[in-house]
């Protein structure tokens, strides 16, 4: 049994898309022209975006930001993720998913890989989704503080 968390990504034009928005896969295996399996090391953080549509438009939009777990750790079950992961964020509905994607863009705009951002940022991002308010943004200073704290934890 592998220590890695495996995520099946799938694409069927104009119908279904499961994709990784960010994260560092340590393995990438092609199953066929529509499916791949990406594997993540324990402790790594990644975002899985899923949407499904029919003839009338998008019917499901979801985003999960997860931390890959080590064997024996508790985890949440998430479709297409084996064995599952520690859920940092799970939202449904296009307006919320779109807002999280924008907040991911903000982190990337700072020159920070979202996979390296503090897990607590992702865990609490659902509190910052109001389109009318300016979100309490992740900043380079917050990121430096997170990295500094991690030196003492390890």
Automatic annotation (TrEMBL):
User: Which Pfam families does the entry mention?
Assistant: DUF2840
Q: Which domain of life is it from?
A: Bacteria
Q: Which InterPro entries match?
A: DUF2840
- The name under which this protein is listed is DUF2840 domain-containing protein
Species in which this protein is naturally found: Bradyrhizobium brasilense
